[in-house]
Design brief:
The chain has about 190 residues and is α/β, with parallel strands linked by helices. The chain has eight helices and nine strands. It is globular and about 40 Å long.
Length: about 190
């Protein structure tokens, strides 16, 4: 397994200035914020399970942007009905990355059912154009480089270790500020 913060750093390194990044509640948003806070990032605070729907809407309405959805396994499981909708709409600019540590880490590490519910197989059966399962840094690097930017919708299941990182700050922007700077970023492109 790969450490989640290491995976996030590798993913963020692949993004360009026009890419839009949506990160789910909890540690994923905190680690994206600590790794590369930018106006093109939307940090979902307190609304677990809604990120893939938001990402789909953005992908359809903003085809000039590549949309990176950094989801957790618990969040993805909460919104399984969105996966076939994403696959049916087929946005070529949509990259759905599920960081799966098989736990609800932000609330105490309770086990999630992703250990037995195969999210990659679910994505494949829904009809995502490309589905990858990775568990190491090398596999992640290869998967990130495997397809051109318009090869979506893509789903990448990253098996991540529960590896708490000390000193990760909370997102310091207020929700309204996150929204406003994100919208301004989209409008300025």
């Amino acid at each position: 397994m790969i450490a989640r913060d290491e995976a996030i750093a590798a993913i963020v390194a692949r993004m360009d200035d026009t890419d839009l990044v949506l990160s789910t509640t909890g540690m994923i948003s905190r680690e994206v914020f600590a790794t590369n806070d930018r106006s093109g990032n939307f940090y979902m605070l307190g609304s677990m399970g809604l990120l893939s729907s938001l990402g789909l809407g953005l992908a359809v309405l903003s085809p000039q942007h590549r949309i990176w959805v950094l989801d957790g396994d618990g969040s993805a499981l909460m919104s399984l009905g969105t996966l076939p909708l994403i696959a049916t709409e087929r946005p070529p600019n949509f990259v759905h990355i599920i960081l799966d540590n098989e736990a609800y880490e932000s609330t105490g590490g309770q086990p999630a059912i992703s250990a037995s519910a195969d999210l990659a197989a679910i994505g494949k059966s829904c009809g995502y154009r490309h589905v990858d399962r990775v568990a190491s840094r090398d596999e992640l690097e290869r998967a990130l480089d495997a397809y051109p930017p318009d090869a979506g919708p893509r789903l990448m299941l990253v098996k991540a270790a529960i590896a708490p990182v000390e000193g990760i700050p909370r997102v310091s922007h207020a929700p309204a500020a996150i929204r406003d700077r994100f919208v301004a970023h989209i409008r300025n492109d």
